[in-house]
Design a protein that fits this description.
single chain, mainly alpha, two-stranded antiparallel ribbon, 2 strands, 2% strand, globular
């Protein structure tokens, strides 16, 4: 599990974004997680905290679904035609998302943080948005799968997805 501690503000933002995503409102989800800090270092720090929170939750759910590693969960990337593509050939935001998740799943929070840092430092704004949306989508899909199997889900994620 990741050791990222997140402030209540970031958790609340992530919760509101998950609700918007569940309703199919991607733009609203991005609005919910938009950084509120006035300066660039503060904005970057908020986005880093949000992404690490989401990927940390995804990692925890992958571990739960994989029965602590005894039943591995496979991560696959597909193109628009539905064909599987190697991770290294995926679009940069998807590639970053997969690498971040895999680092977290394998307990390497430092490598996950590095992936997020690289994305925030070098990705175009729309690529950062794609990365955030990917993390939100995975959080929804993984939590839905956990709930369908009566497996535990973090309370704030469960609350966001409750009908």
């Amino acid at each position: 599990m990741g050791c990222v501690t997140s402030g209540p503000n970031v958790v609340a933002k992530a919760q509101r974004a998950l609700v918007a995503m569940r309703l199919g409102r991607d733009d609203e989800a991005l609005d919910q997680v938009a950084p509120s800090a006035a300066d660039e270092p503060g904005r970057t720090a908020e986005m880093r905290e949000l992404m690490l929170l989401l990927f940390g939750e995804c990692s925890t759910m992958v571990s739960v679904l994989g029965d602590g590693g005894s039943a591995p969960v496979k991560v696959q990337v597909f193109d628009e035609a539905g064909e599987e593509v190697p991770i290294d050939q995926a679009d940069p935001p998807v590639r970053t998302a997969v690498r971040t998740l895999l680092a977290e799943v394998h307990g390497n929070t430092e490598a996950a943080e590095e992936q997020v840092e690289i994305a925030l430092a070098s990705a175009a704004p729309d690529e950062v948005d794609s990365l955030v949306l990917q993390a939100l989508r995975w959080t929804i899909r993984l939590s839905t799968e956990c709930l369908d199997r009566d497996l535990p889900v973090t309370e704030w994620v469960h609350d966001a997805l409750a009908d």
